[in-house]
Write a structure and sequence with these properties.
six-stranded mixed sheet, 6 helices, Cobalt-precorrin-4 Transmethylase, domain 1
Length: 196
């Protein structure tokens, strides 16, 4: 175990399953952690939970679903504001989320993990705007690297911090500004995401 563990993130976007597996393989990922609240894709059926799990396991990867714990579309109405933005500050305080984050962090000590959602660009995805930022606010010593659709690796430390994050205060202190990038409803299917 090193002083600082590593975690990768990836969006499935509109990749073929072959391209997606190659992105994981080229980064030596061993475990894919699915953090989608709704683990299915209407447009890319091979990214729905059952076929994705089969493809991953057939290719030698492990699959873990943590969408209930770390998903960006919680079922509780009180975790949404009046315009259906998810209140990430409130979500991050739930025991369910804390448990999922702890499980993710502990896993990085043993496995090379990539957490996956649908969006190719992490800038507007909850895997960055919620999970990565919550990791940074915690006492976990984890570095995060985003795997982009073209194979480029982008360290979280290199990304701009002006996409809705707090202004010189901790996220958990300012829960009113720490919320989802777009208005969502827990009952509405996710929109499609395109690779860049």
């Amino acid at each position: 175990m090193t002083d600082q563990e590593c975690l990768w993130t990836i969006g499935h976007s509109n990749h073929s399953i072959e391209r997606f597996l190659e992105l994981l393989r080229s980064n030596e990922i061993g475990v894919l952690v699915d953090v989608r609240s709704q683990p299915y894709s209407s447009y890319q059926g091979h990214f729905s939970q059952a076929p994705l799990r089969r493809s991953l396991e057939d290719a030698g990867f492990r699959y873990l679903f943590l969408g209930k714990e770390l998903g960006g579309r919680p079922p509780e109405p009180e975790l949404y504001d009046d315009e259906d933005y998810v209140l990430y500050g409130e979500l991050a305080k739930t025991e369910r989320f804390k448990h999922g984050l702890d499980r993710l962090v502990k896993g990085t000590a043993t496995y090379r993990i990539a957490m996956m959602c649908s969006e190719e660009d992490p800038s507007d995805c909850h895997r960055r705007r919620l999970i990565t930022w919550a990791l940074e606010e915690s006492d976990a010593s984890v570095t995060v690297t985003h795997i982009r659709g073209d194979g480029e690796l982008v360290d979280e430390s290199e990304m701009s911090r002006d996409t809705g994050k707090h202004q010189q205060q901790t996220l958990l202190e300012d829960v009113t500004t720490w919320k989802s990038a777009q208005s969502v409803s827990p009952n509405t299917p996710r929109r499609a995401s395109l690779a860049s």
